[in-house]
Amino acid sequence: MRLPSQHRRVIGVVALGALLALTGGTPTTAAPEDRGAPALRPAMAWGDNGSGRLGDGTGQQRDTPVAVSGLLSVAQVDAGTAYGLALLTNGTVRAWGDNARGALGDGTEADHATPGVVAGLDGVRQIAAGAVHALALLADGTVAAWGDNTSGQLGLGVTGGSRLLPVRVPGLRKVRAVAARDSYSLALLPDGTVLAWGNNSAGVLGNGTVGTDVPTPAPVLGLKNVRTLAAGSGHVLALLRDGTVAAWGANNFGQLGRGTVTADPSPVPAPVADLAGVEAVAAGLLHSLALRKDGTVRSWGGNEDGQLGIGSFGGVRDRPVTVSGLTRARAVAAGFNTSYALSRADDDIVHAWGRNSTGQLGDGSTVRRSLPVTAQTSLDQVDTLAAGDGFTLAAG
């Protein structure tokens, strides 16, 4: 990674939250075509287009998928609150949308509605988008970070300001995967333990305390044998190697899946109830998803917009319930009261349910859904999927 010398510019306040990715871990990359030509792996986007977060060069809301401009070789996408990230198959990173705190990593604070290069990065293996900060896992196992640092979410040992260009996170080595959301960050190590840093108002750092920000990566207590992570807006899920799931953080909508709803956060990991045989997890604003090996999906937490996929709106479920009508899912993702699953039967189809006020379900409407509907992306196969605040990204 090349880090330009100008990276030390610091500026002022803000943060809130959104995102999520698919299964975590190292993203799938395309196999090369014959004669060495890379396979085409374009990106699509739909939903709210404020600040150009769909990357199509306009500010027009889209309730069906449109192409993200100029992206043809995408290995992974991720979504912040109002910006998008794409890791290309050549190991470089593109970003677009809102740039008020430098989340686009181009040395400026100017929004742009088409993808631009995140400066000084190559050899990237995975990306993770927080609300207004981002992480890149590099091939050598180190991590770069950029954007807002109000709560120390860049892991630099200090709080405040922002970094408009990527900087290395000190002390991180041999990292296997990264995750981010809101104003905090996570790193998974080869031994299955997890480090966390940044805002701890909801106990997401898993260190047994609530409220004190930590600007340096520190261990999540009592957690081992982790396979992958999902960072939500105030809670975290860890998929363990035995197929069970641990959760910690906010539980005011039962999003920890422990059979309780509590106003006080739970700052230490504990098992999600009645859940085994899990292949992937996703964490949204107030709810959680788990994909089981049999292709069914479990959901729990808040259901205001039908994001649990159980055929009703409202209420909470403090233990996992089965999403109706999904029997052959292969991946899951979650956003702001939205849920998504990819189909094993049809590689180009995205199943979606929950909030749809800006067309973020991609079904051609703005009607919220309590049961899965389909969005046709025109991609040959969707390999990576992510959701931000009112918008969705896919590539493959």
Features:
396 residues, mainly beta, Methylamine Dehydrogenase, Chain H, 4-stranded antiparallel β-sheet, globular, disordered N terminus
How would you describe this protein?
It holds the Pfam family WD40_RLD. Residues 1-30 form the signal peptide. Residues 25-62 are annotated as: Disordered. Residues 44-394 form the RCC1-like domain. Keywords: Repeat, Signal. With 396 residues, the protein is mainly β. The chain has one domain (5-29, 40-395): 7 Propeller (Methylamine Dehydrogenase, Chain H). Helix content is 0%, strand content 43%. It is built from no helices and 28 strands. It has strands spanning 43-47, 62-67, 74-79, 83-88, 93-97, 112-117, 124-129, 133-138, 143-148, 162-168, 177-181, 184-188, 194-198, 214-219, 226-231, 235-240, 245-251, 262-271, 278-283, 287-292, 297-302, 316-322, 329-334, 338-343, 349-354, 369-376, 384-387, 391-395. The strands form 7 sheets. It has a 4-stranded antiparallel beta sheet with strand order 2-1-28-27, with no helix packed on it. Strands 3-4-5-6 form a 4-stranded antiparallel beta sheet, with no helix packed on it. Strand 19 (278-283) and strand 20 (287-292) form a beta hairpin. The chain is globular, with a radius of gyration of 19 Å. The model is unreliable at 2-35 (pLDDT under 50).
